[in-house]
Amino acid sequence: MDNCIFCKIAAKQIPAQIIYEDDDLLAFKDINPAAPVHFLIVPKKHVATLADCTAEDAALLGKISLLAPKLAQEQGVGYQADGNGPGTGGFKTLFNTGPDGGQEVYHLHMHVIGGPRPWRRSL
Ligand code: 5GP
Ligand code: ZN
Fold it and tell me: Gene3D superfamilies, per this entry (predicted)?
């Protein structure tokens, strides 16, 4: 999509701190982090919002969800489950959708946010 900032990042037309890439997905650090660790996972193909996803995007959304804990672990904010209780560490995952959802960039992205609280800004 012309003039989509995340399409331009995916096409390497503008720089970003990329932490993961495969054929379908890209993950890069948020330019204005809300917390010590804050990165975004985006599909390389342009989809505007979660509400624009269809059944054809189910595998893509699954890939995004499964990638989040893997990259969180690599970035030092993984979740260590203890089997029953809360465990330790962890992170927040978030899709903002539409104006009332606080979405500013209309290219689907999952926020992955972690690190010791309090965080610098809320999302
Ligand atoms: P939204 O409010 O749409 O859910 O979140 C968009 C996020 O993208 C924000 O947290 C913002 O800081 C981040 N962002 C906006 N423009 C850029 C950019 O050019 N590069 C990077 N790395 N992050 C961006
Ligand atoms: Zn786009």
Answer: HIT-like
